[in-house]
Every structure is written in structure tokens, then in C-alpha cells.
Design brief:
By secondary structure, this protein is of the alpha+beta class. The chain is built from 15 helices and 31 strands. Strand 22 and strand 23 (433-435) form a beta hairpin. Its main location: cytoplasm.
Length: 571
Amino acid sequence: MRQKNALIPTLRNVGEAEMVSHRLLLRGGFIRQLAAGVYTFLPLGFRVLHKVEKIVREEMDRIGAQELLLPVLHPAELWHESGRWENYGPELFKINDRHDRSFAMGPTHEEVITDLLRGEINSYKKLPMALYQIQTKFRDEKRPRSGLLRGREFVMKDAYSFHADRESLDQTYEDMFGAYMNIFTRVGLDFRAVEADAGAIGGKGTHEFMALSDAGEDTIAICEACDYAANIEMAEVVGNEEVSDKTPVSEREKIATPGKRTIEEVAEYLDVEPHQLVKSLLFTVDGEPVLVLVRGDHEVNDVKVKNLLEGAVCELADEETVRRIAGASSGFVGPVGLKEPVKILADHAVMRMNEMITGANEADAHLMHVQIGRDFQVDLAGDLRNIQEGDACPRCGGTIQFKRGIEVGHVFKLGTRYSEAMNARFLDENGKEQPFIMGCYGIGVSRTVAAAIEQHHDENGIIWPVAIAPYTVHLIAVNMKNEDQARLAEALYEELNKEGIEVLFDDRKERAGVKFKDADLLGIPVRITVGAKAGEGLVEIKLRRSGESKELSVEEVLKELPEWIKRADQK
């Protein structure tokens, strides 16, 4: 491609873009914003996007998944069947047609693919089956930001598998897991597969694929000694569920704590350590209030609360509910003397406490020497807190550390979550109707582009991994007005095209400094510069990542180029 004819509108400044990937994609002329969270992919960006898509297709096809294309518009009736019309939340784009019929703009396609298969597959003989698509998705993000990392319109690969039994699902899940490992390795990401929560998708058994980056919104718990990794929402805290034997303690005592609401304020006022206090937080799980207890120096994990109760939606109770049940405002709530009975859940660490300090369920008061069993009863105990750095690894006992990550992929074992709700069934080998057992597997294709830049850049611009670079070689003629340079550059451009090398030829009548600055910004892996020694048949070859360079004849360049390309990803 000749750069003088290309739509590559580079910029020096891009205003308030915060993320590195957002700034560089805008500056390099890869994308342009149309509205908040909505972007146009310009030619260079579109080439990168297609490189990622090509890798995804190759790995999906390799494991026998079939590509199809499903509609963007989803009849509301399907989402009512699954129960997600109400439960998905405000991120679901909802529209009405001229006949006032309601539709959703697909953020994901579980309902649509289930509807398709229940009408087309009626026998176990056709199972298992895996189908995938690469398509634009829509989510009405409250605060779309960070460019391609969190948009309202984005490109996603979503795949779905249908099975007659769990063993078959497990095998496909393993195949998909392996395919994802290959995809993100080929794309050039430093990533980890982590245990995760299924969220609004539903289902049990899931992993997220996280590109490690300080720009990531997710916190990942990683063991220093083994390969354990989990999203903070799902990271297991090692603990004994059994209640310890309780030795007698002093009688419960109410003390005044005027204006002291937070754990830190109460601990300082009473001259005790935060771990001697218990946080008592009221949640609603599927509309039912529950009281959750964690140690004062720990944080409640609402995903674990939801999963322990096998619920769909878990939210902090509003202040009106808190006052009705506890008789006091948040900050003074405790498990003793509630105005209305509620289910009480306690974290393992609370169950091991012999005595504790809790809210007194009245303003400006707390209770000392509270004991489980004597003063209140726990209905359910479990792992209900966020893991912390320094905690023991649940697999090997090593030390947990935190890293930040960008979610680029997610695989789920859905089970019968959708097939049961939507009556999607097949006949088994005994002629009996059974619900499909399903899996779901997603990759954020456009997000992967941004994640790659977050990991591969320097102060001068992008450093594309070879596999997804828009072009492999950036050919620069320093001065196109110079006959020797122009002649040699044109000949080299022709030879590279004959060899099937993807090359961007900077034949613009621009100053050399502008060309080199743009080349660093665009980040194409290999640069060939035709400059002052063109009359001698010599050019410079240089690797964008390592900076390694060498002066070679044109013949040597053509001979050695494959080896230079192989080394282009090395630091």
C-alpha cells in the first residue's frame, strides 16, 4: 500500500484520552470516535482487527466449530423466556419497531442460538455441535471509556456448544480452553487463564482470559508458587467451615460510640484492632434480605454471597430496608436484636472468632463481647470475603499476590440454564426428551487489539506483534525527489509485493523527521529505509521492538528478510 494514497490521518495530540491504547489508536489513525463508546475502524485499524479475527477463525475451525452469523435484533419474547429481559440490567439496548414490538440489540446470543437449535436439532445423534460467529455487539455502558477497552459497540467472537451429556461438554470446554490459549499466544499477549464468575450469562464452571496490564480494570489473584489464578470475585479463601469450640467470654455489653460508623473509626475509638470487629452488611439476593458478616479487616464479596445462596442478583440493601430490619442506619447494624428475622450468613473467619464487636442496631452504639451461638445463630457459613495479598493459595499454600488484568476472553459451562428456561430439548438414545447441555465461549476481538497495545508500546508509539500488525514491513523512501532513492524504493516495493510481503510504502513528499516519527507511532515490526546510500544499492533494515539495525544491499535484504521478521517480536 502506498502511504501517499492511504487514509492514515496521524495526530500529535488527542485531548483527554487516558489509556495508552486509546491515545495511540487515535494518534496513529487506526480509529475515530463517532459517539461515546462508538468507533469507526479506519483502514489500518481494520487490518489489525481482521488479523485477530483470522487467528480466531483458524483456531475455532481447528477444533471443529462451525461459523455462522446470527441477527443483531432479538425479539423481546426470547429474552422474556430466558428471564434476562428483566435481569440483564440497564446495559441491554432495548428498542421498539413501528408496530411497537420490542427488541434487544444483541450484547450476546444465548437466547437466539438456543431458539435456533431447538428448532433444528431433535436427536442426540446430531450432538455435540459447536457454532460460532464474529459480530458487532451492543451494550449500553453507563460510562463508556478507555477507547476499545470499554465501548457501547464492539466486535466479539461468541461460540456456543450443545451436548447430550456432561462428559461431552467437559471435552468441548477443554478444546475451547486450548484454542483460547493458542489464540492469545499467537496474538502475542502476556495473559493468564483465571477462575471467574459467570455474571449475567449464568452457568457454573468458567474461566476468564486476562491480559496482564496495569491498565486493567480487574484484579487477579495469582500464586507465586503454582499456576493458580482467579478473578478477585472468585478467588477462594482457605478456611475451616466448622465453628470453633467457644470458651466462655464476658457478658455482652453495649457501649456508646457517638458518630463512629466505619470500622476504622470504631476501632480507633475503642482502642482495638479492626480484626476484632465484625462488619454486618444487609444485602438483597433476588429480592430477599440477608445479613452478611465478615471480619472488620475484610471486605464482603457479593458474588460469593450470591453463589452461596444460588441467586441471580445480589445488591446492597437500600437505607429504608436497613432501617426497617435493623432499626438503625448503616454503620450501626449487627446480628443481635434485629427488628425483623433475616437469614444470617457468616464468613469462615467470623466463625473462628471467639468473641467480637458488632453494631448494636441503634444509633451511636456497639456491642462488646458478642459470641456466636450464645448471642445469635448463623444460618449459613462460607467463604464470603475478598482474598487479600499475602493470603495462602488454596491450591498449594503459597503466597497470593495481586495483578491487574484486561478481560479478553471468557468460557462458560452453561449447563441447562437456557435450554430448561426455553424448553430446548432433544430425544436421547432411549427416545426420552432431555434438555440440551450447553457451553458458551466469548472473545473480545476489538478489545484484544487494545490489550495488545497496552502491552506492546513505548514512548514513541505502538510496537505491533508480527501476527497482528497491519503490515509486516514499513518501506520508507527518505526523499522521493531524489532519483536514486525513488528508483530503488520503487523496485524494492515491487519485489516485496511479488514475495507476498505485506508492505506499507511511505512515498509521501514529507520531511524525513515526519516519516520516521509516523513510522514509530504506527509500530510496523520491520522498517526498511532507502536513504543517502541508495546510489550504492544499500538500505537500512531495522526492527521496531529491539531497535536492531543493519545496512544491507537490496539482494541481502530480500534474502535475509524472513529471518528479520522471525526476530521482530524478540526484545
